Amino acid sequence: MKKRSMAMIAAVMVFTRQAPAQTAKEPPPADAAEATSAAWSFSVLVDGFVVPHSEFFVSPIFSADHHWLHLEARYNYEDQRTGSLWAGYNFSAGHKVALEVTPMLGGVFGNSNGIAPGYYFSLAYWKVELSSTGEYIFNTDGHNASFFYSWPQVTFTPVDWLHTGFAAQRTKLYHTNLDVQRGPFLGFSHKNLSFTTYVFNPGLDQPTVVFEAGFEF
C-alpha cells in the first residue's frame, strides 16, 4: 500500500510540473493573430492652395505602409495636372529620440514627366519634431525642366490636440516673387483627424495660404 501511495504522489508531482509547459505551447489569442496580420496603415492628406493671382486648387496624397514597405500616390504635387506613384523603404530607430527615414523612387506623369528619387525624414525629441520631404525630378521632357522640390518644417506639439511651428517649401507647383516660400503654421487634431493652416510669405501683401486636412486609418 505504501509503495502504491508513493507512486501516485510521484505521478501527481510530475503532472503538476509539466502543466505550465503544456499551457505555454497553446496558440496565441485570436486578437493577437489578427493584429499581426492587419499591419497595414493608411493615410489621406489633402492640401488646398490659395495662391495670389491664381485659381484655388487641391493636391491630394494617399499613402499605405506595411512594415518596411511604403506606397504613395500624389496629384497636383510636382506640377499642376500631374500625378506621381511612389514606392519606398521605411527605416526607424530610437525611442526617446525617434528617427524615421524613407527613401523613395517615383514616376511622374502629366504636365511634367520623369523619374524622381525622393525621401521622407523626421527626427523627434520630447515635443519637437524636425521633418523634411524632398525629391528631384529628372524630367524626360528636357534637362532644363528638371527640378528639386523640398518641404522642411519644425513642429512643436505642446498638447496632443495642438501643433504649431515653421515651414518652408521650394516648389514648381505655383510661382511667387520668392523662390523659397516660408511661414508659420497652426493645426489641431482629434483622434485620426488633423487640420492645419500654413501661411507662406506673410510679409508680402498677398501671402499664400495652404489649408491641410489629414485622416489616418
What topology does this entry show?
Elements: H1 2-24, H2 30-37, E1 40-50, E2 57-66, E3 69-75, E4 82-89, E5 91-93, E6 97-110, E7 114-125, E8 128-139, E9 147-159, E10 162-169, E11 181-190, E12 193-200, E13 208-216
Antiparallel strand pairs: 1-2, 1-13, 2-3, 3-4, 4-6, 5-6, 6-7, 7-8, 8-9, 9-10, 10-11, 11-12, 12-13
How would you characterize this protein structure?
The chain has about 220 residues and is mainly beta. The protein has one domain: monomeric porin ompg (Porin, Beta Barrel), CATH 2.40.160.40. It is built from two helices and 13 strands. The N terminus is likely disordered.
Quick overview:
The chain is mainly beta. The chain has 2 helices and 13 strands; from the N terminus they run H-H-E-E-E-E-E-E-E-E-E-E-E-E-E. Helix content is 14%, strand content 58%.
Please compute the radius of gyration using only Cα atoms.
Answer: 26 Å
Lateral arrangement of strands in the main beta sheet: 1-2-3-4-6-7-8-9-10-11-12-13
Q: Quote the CATH topology.
A: Porin
Question: How many runs of DSSP E, i.e. beta strands?
Answer: 13
Q: CATH homologous superfamily name?
A: monomeric porin ompg
Helix/strand structural class: mainly beta
CATH class: Mainly Beta
What average pLDDT do the residues reach?
87
Q: Tell me the series of helices and strands, N- to C-terminal.
A: HHEEEEEEEEEEEEE
Number of helices: 2
Overall morphology: globular
Compute the number of structural domains.
1
| β-strand amount | over 45%
Helix content: 10-25%
CATH architecture: Beta Barrel
